[in-house]
Every structure is written in structure tokens, then in C-alpha cells.
Amino acid sequence: MLTIYGISNCDTIKKARRWLDNNGLEYDFHDYRKDGLDLVSLANWAEELGWEQLLNRRGTTWRKLPEEVKASINKERALELMLEQPAMIKRPLLDTGATKILGFSEKQYSHLLS
């Protein structure tokens, strides 16, 4: 079973879910804010995907951080911030069971899920 992780009001999540729905693929949606997030899962994703890739530096939440926090970011601090503020996790995170991918691209989803 596919699982897509993110935040329900995110436009990219909406696009990814629409694509999955339009292609008849069943999936579970895990909303970080409603369903929660634990350090073990986050640390495993960071190990598999890289914490730098997992950290959403384009979002408003990141941009609002003080410059000294951004300048001194490391893996441990990034994981803490992502747990405190899940909007800092790049979205969506799609887990196929065999692999995990970050972000949404129709081409990538088509290739991976065909």
C-alpha cells in the first residue's frame, strides 16, 4: 500500500493526491499535523533520503527562522525543527514500501508507479 505524507492544505500534496486518484491508485494519507510524527520515522527518512533533502528550505516556515538558526543548521537541529514544525519537511513524501521519494513530478510518479 502506498502512503503519502504531508499536510492537507499544501498545494503540492493536493496535486500528488489528485494524480494518484486519477490513476486509480489506492493510498493512505498521513497528515503530519493531524496524525503526528515521531522521531524514529523522521530519523529513518533522514538516513535514507538525507536530512538536507528532507528539510524544506523554500517554505515560509524556514524563511521565518532567525538567520543564526539557519546558518548553524545541522542534522540534529534540523530533525528537532521538523518535529516541532512539520511544514519544514519537504512535501510530499511518497512511500511505496520499496522506496521513498520527495516532492511531486507526474513524470517521476508515472515512471515509479506504472
SSE blueprint:
Layout: E1 2-6, H1 11-22, E2 27-31, H2 32-35, H3 39-49, H4 51-54, H5 60-63, H6 67-71, H7 75-84, E3 93-95, E4 100-102, H8 106-113
Parallel strand pairs: 1-2
Antiparallel strand pairs: 1-3, 3-4
Helix pairs in contact: 3-7
CATH class category: Alpha Beta
Q: Identify the overall geometry.
A: globular
What gyration radius follows from the Cα positions, in whole Å?
14 Å
What is the CATH topology classification name?
Answer: Glutaredoxin
Q: What structural category characterises the helix and strand content?
A: alpha+beta
**Poorly predicted residue ranges:** none
- Overall average pLDDT: 96
* Number of E-type strands: 4
